[in-house]
Amino acid sequence: MAIKNYSTTISAVQTVGEIQGILAAHGAKSVMMNYDERREPCAVMFIAETPLGDRLFKLPANIEAFQAVLQRQKVKCDREQATKVAWRNIKDWVAAQMALLETAMVTFDEIFLPYMADKTGTTVYQLYSGGDLPLISDGRGQ
Q: Does residue 99 form part of some domain?
């Protein structure tokens, strides 16, 4: 079975616009796009109010990972199609998370915690995966 949205024809730019609209409708104060060297969208950055004040979030798109999955699934696709599929799936995920937010099951910062970024754009997940944010002790109190 192929990954969701594998056959989308909707451009990445249009989908990113939809993501921006979803985030703005749910309280994002500012939404900005980052582009890579190919001038393709590679991350959505946004500011949202949290109980601890305004925070920056960076939601990246790993196009290479999507392209690799599509190729393993024998779906014919070039980088442009992988970009479309990646952003469409991210949009679906953001929309699903906003549905949970609307039910008050979660808070904005709870949903996007791994994507919360510091002033340099480094996310909580990147800090954690790089060993710079140890969240779990190793059993020895460290």
A: yes
Identify any residues that bridge with 32 across adjacent strands, giving them in sequence order: 45
CB 89 within 8 A of CB 81: no
Question: How many domains does the chain contain in total?
Answer: 1
**Per-residue model confidence as pLDDT tens digits over 33-50:** 999 998 989 999 999 999
Residue 3 lies in a domain: no
Averaged pLDDT for residues 95-103: 95
pLDDT band at 102; cut points 50, 70, 90: very high
Q: Which two tokens stand for residue 103?
A: 């039910």
CB atoms within 10 A of CB 29: 11
Would 135 be classed as within a structural domain? no
The parent domain of residue 36 ranges over 12-128
> Which residue, among 75, 78, 79, 45, has the nearest Cα to 59 in the 3D structure?
45
Decide if 133 is inside a domain.
no
